[in-house]
Amino acid sequence: MSYLYDDQTKESDTSKLNAQAENVLLCLVLSSFLVNSIFLPKIAGYLLVAGVFGACLLWLVLTGEITFMIPKSIMLSYLSILSLFIFGAGLNPSIRGVARLGAFVSVTSVILFLLILTVDFEIFWRLYGIVTAGIVVVGTPTLFVDQISLGSVVISSYTTTPTSPINIGINTIQSIFINPNNLALVCGFAVVGLVTTQKWSKFIIIVVAINAVGVFVSDGQAAQLATIAGIGIFSVGQFNRSLVPLVTTAALTTIIGGMLILFKLLPGPEMISTISLSGRRHLWRASVHALEMRPWVGYGPVNMGTVLEPYISDPRRLGAGPHNSYIRIALTSGIFGLLSYLILHLYALFQSAKPSDCNTLASHAVLWSAIIFQLFNGKTIFGISPSSILFAVALGWSLRELSLTDI
User: Fold this and answer.
1) Of all residues in the chain, what percent are helix, strand and coil, respectively (each to 5)?
2) CA separation for the pair 378, 234 (Å, rounded)
3) Are 37 and 174 in contact (CB under 8 A)?
4) What pLDDT does 161 receive?
5) Is residue 251 pLDDT above 80, yes or no?
6) Band (141; pLDDT cuts 50, 70, 90)
7) CA 218/CA 235 separation, integer angstroms
8) DSSP strand E in 112-261: where?
9) Does residue 207 contact residue 194 with C-beta atoms inside 8 Å?
């Protein structure tokens, strides 16, 4: 594979970055948690992430010259998405829209091609997993009581109808987040990241177990599926590395087939076409109708709830986005944008599936989890929410391992 990189980086600078990059990335990821937390209004959370991102850039500048690597194989796809974003912003110009687009693209580009290159992911996932385990512990009392107070902060359970097959009579927890899906997502990434990178010890087993509990008690079915997928593909690779490409191909084929059956475009078991998706099926169909009106360029970086509103018949879903990252990209940048977005992910997925070292297998497993998450999450790699930044980290890690393998 060919790539662009600066080969003038001084060894001393690189060593200095290696000692700190995982901490800088961790600060950026953790700051994004506050965007969807009970501590700050969303706009304040965005401003905090922007401030931390600015500090990251300052740190990168102060440490001297660094590597900037973009695999040529995905450069065209990435630039195509950015071009379509800019074109879409021009169709619906607004100061807020342009500012959001600039911030989202800047954060994602720095994570994918700059900041992530010198991160020690064994350290990163260990620290990350410890923090997310702590978040689960803080919210654990709300399994049994409706709310607890920590000083002036009130942590509540989430009132909803249980979606798990077995209702064991406990509350759904959300801990510091405003939605339990956020807790499920951050814990799901922690479980897969820890299992694929850590040497087992009693402490790591406890941290993994606490995060696994967080995935389950937050009632996040998408997170449960993504976690199982990541650990499953890693287990296959540990058993026989040469099987990973075959299993990856089979799994993707199954996912595509399942989606086609879900929309009744292919015949299949009735249980698939009627499976509960917490209202997502209605939103996905509305998204398809909206995309039919502007298939090639999409609607630009606008409020997707407004885009879908004319096509939503269920008043309970008004104002909601598509709840699917790939559909969101299609609505934002059209079919060409969707194809480019898929190429980014599928290139990294299939290249990292090929037999290589254990790091490539670990990043492949985490990327699998990110791809599954995006089937049910309305965020993409472009953003500063927890899901967007973690999706970018997963993709960037795989791209980095592929680049380093060929150096």
Assistant:
1) 70, 5, 25
2) 26
3) no
4) 47
5) yes
6) confident
7) 25
8) 147-150, 153-158, 172-173
9) yes
Q: Which residues of 247-278 are buried (b: 16+ CB within 10 A; e: fewer)?
A: bbeebeeeeeebbebbeeeeeeeeeeeeeebe
Tokens standing for residue 312 = 């939503």
Quote the pTM value.
Answer: 0.90
Please name the amino acid found at residue 13: D
Classify 142 as helix, strand or coil: helix
Kindly tell me if the per-residue pLDDT of 306 is higher than 60: yes
Looking at residues 201-221, what average pLDDT do you find?
Answer: 93
Where are the domains positioned within the chain?
3-264+318-406
pLDDT at 4 (0 to 100): 45
- Token pair 């700050």 is found at 40
Closest CA to 13 of 63, 67, 68: 63
C-beta of residue 357 within 8 angstroms of C-beta of residue 84: no
To the nearest 10 degrees (0 to 180), the angle between helices 221-239 and 244-262 is 150
**Residue 169: burial class (beta carbons within 10 Å; 0-12, 13-18, 19+):** exposed
Q: What is the DSSP letter of 354?
A: S
